[in-house]
Design goal:
The complex is a heterodimer of chains A (about 260) and B (about 280). With about 260 residues, chain A is mainly alpha-helical. Chain A is built from 13 helices and no strands. Chain B is α/β, with parallel strands linked by helices and about 280 residues long. Classes of the chains: A mainly alpha (about 260), B alpha/beta (about 280). The interface between A and B is medium-sized, with 29 and 30 residues.
Chain lengths: ~260, ~280
């Protein structure tokens, strides 16, 4: 399968996105903000379809709107951003708006499917470079702020008392999440962002007790799941996004087995 | 120089005056128990000392300086809202994350961070405990870890917000004893807020009792009296002393115990442990 250009592109794109989402996802799960990540993906759908409508590459619409929404959610404040009703309403409205934009731009139904469920086998070289730069920006920023971010996530009251601005890190982090989400959408689509952002990170947190090891396992699992998913898609002709989400769910379930067995 | 000085301090929280024109002085090295009914402002007072809640009137000085956020001379143990963390993260990482958690960079411990984390864990006797994941650590042991964190950076003042909540009497005694020995060894000033006075009786030097915007600071004999507490509660209060224990009663109810029960019903945590503890506590 490696002789085909589209497969090489798919594996390269998946590698970049998997590592970014594995690392960012680790913090997302630790901060219990996974639902916010899900909502950002839906906002991205509006951005992508809106961009198509005005003739801009969808990835830029996606990045613009997710980052704006992420920073906005962070600025509104931790408590409001975690309210599931508010997030749920924004999430639904975003999908609705995206649908409206698609309605105006009737040419491609496949485009909608690709945005919603991803189309990793259609990634071109230009997109790979875009993914790489976005990935460098988001993981680079994450690396710089990771220590205070971790402190603010694990013990907000104490961090605040030590002079750490909870809001600043909330804004920066949701901006990083927004970039990671925009990347993920290229591989697994808006609806399946959880497969790469949450599944591997949640499994890693069950398997490890250290932060460094947790980050490595999270990124490693995301890479393993996305490459295996693409390979399975190549041989079975089933969608890659299906395989990736199935592997993500399967591996997470496996990691919960020991504690289920203990509880008996 | 006093550890803490309040001059005519008014603290407002969400438009409500929590403290109104309070003045108090706490000397260095004192162990002060902070008591009072729910909503009396125990947490708000501690947060004001930390510089997180500004005084709407009056001045607050901490170790000779105006109260300001991020004061490295203060160690803080925030109230746990829910015990039973499901994190598999190693407790040691949790403690070490505080050492220079306010600085930018990657969250990997340097040699100095390592040494500081081990030092504070030794102070509370929790070095072995810290190798376990947080999810496998009991409430009493978690409080020990939080106390260790409060000691990071060798603070001169420790603010401990309700460390005894949800603990069995056995663990309560251990934690109070540990705190007192830390005060004796390190000479730090301690503000220890609690629902109940009795677990603290052997350890504290003075009591700071809050209620209805006012505060009374003094020895147990001076403050825990019918007239003083009646003023703070705004109701007729009787103080009953039985075998070295003190009960604050209003119309036949033990008001401290009632608050305690109310709080725990609301949070739905450790109900069985708490109920099981009652008979031995009465």
């Amino acid at each position: 399968m490696f002789e085909y250009d589209f497969m090489q592109n798919a594996l390269a794109a998946a590698a970049i996105v998997a590592i970014v989402s594995g690392l960012v996802g680790y913090f997302l799960v630790l901060r219990r903000q996974t639902f916010a990540g899900h909502a950002l993906a839906h906002v991205g759908f509006t951005g992508a379809t809106g961009a198509v409508l005005i003739g801009v590459p969808p990835i830029w619409g996606l990045v613009m709107l997710t980052v704006t929404a992420g920073v906005g959610m962070g600025a509104i404040g931790e408590r409001l951003a975690q309210r599931d009703v508010a997030i749920g309403i924004v999430l639904t409205l975003s999908l609705g708006l995206g649908l409206l934009f698609l309605h105006f731009f009737t040419a491609y139904a496949t485009r909608a499917t690709a945005l919603l469920f991803g189309n990793v086998l259609a990634v071109d070289v230009g997109t790979i470079w875009t993914l790489l730069w976005l990935g460098v920006v988001s993981t680079g920023t994450l690396a710089v702020i990771s220590r205070p971010l971790l402190f603010a996530s694990l013990q907000p009251e104490l961090a605040e008392a030590k002079g750490v601005s909870l809001r600043l890190y909330s804004v920066l982090f949701l901006g990083i999440v927004a970039l990671a989400v925009a990347e993920c959408v290229q591989i697994v689509g808006v609806l399946l962002v959880f497969a790469l952002m949450v599944g591997p990170a949640a499994a890693a947190q069950r398997l490890t007790t250290g932060i460094g090891s947790g980050l490595v396992v999270s990124a490693g699992l995301a890479l393993l799941e996305s490459w295996t998913g693409i390979a399975l898609a190549f041989y079975t002709d089933w969608p890659a996004s299906f395989w990736i989400s199935a592997l993500s769910a399967g591996i997470y379930l496996l990691t919960t087995l020991p504690s289920v067995a203990r509880a008996r | 120089m006093n550890a803490i000085e309040f001059r005519h301090v008014t603290l407002t929280l969400g438009g409500r005056e929590v403290l109104a024109g309070v003045g108090l002085e706490i000397a260095k090295g004192e162990f002060v128990g902070v008591l009072g009914p729910n909503g009396a402002g125990k947490t708000t007072l501690l947060r004001a000392v930390l510089g997180l809640v500004p005084a709407s009137r009056g001045t607050i000085r901490v170790l000779g300086q105006p109260a300001a956020r991020g004061n490295p001379a203060i160690g803080y143990m925030a109230q746990i809202r829910s015990t039973g963390s499901d994190l598999r993260l190693r407790a040691w990482d949790f403690v070490a994350g505080v050492v220079d958690g306010h600085r930018l960079g990657l969250p990997f411990a340097s040699k100095a961070t390592h040494a500081e984390a081990d030092r504070v864990l030794d102070l509370v006797g929790a070095r072995d405990l810290a190798q376990r994941p947080l999810a496998e650590i009991s409430g009493g042991e978690q409080q020990r870890l939080l106390l260790a964190q409060a000691l990071i950076g060798r603070p001169q003042l420790l603010l401990l917000d309700e460390p005894l909540v949800n603990l069995d009497p056995h663990y309560q005694g251990d934690l109070v004893g540990l705190t007192k020995s830390l005060r004796d060894e390190l000479g730090v000033t301690i503000l220890f807020s609690a629902h109940e006075l009795n677990p603290l009786l052997g350890a504290l030097d003075r009591v700071l009792y809050l209620g209805r915007g006012q505060a009374a600071l003094g020895t147990v004999a001076d403050v825990i009296t019918g007239p003083v507490l009646s003023r703070l509660y705004g109701a007729e209060i009787d103080v009953v002393r039985v075998k070295g224990r003190i009960f604050v009663m209003s119309g036949g109810h033990d008001v401290e115990r009632d608050h305690h029960r109310h709080d725990n019903n609301r949070s739905h945590t450790h109900m069985r442990g708490l109920l099981g503890a009652w008979p031995s506590n009465v």
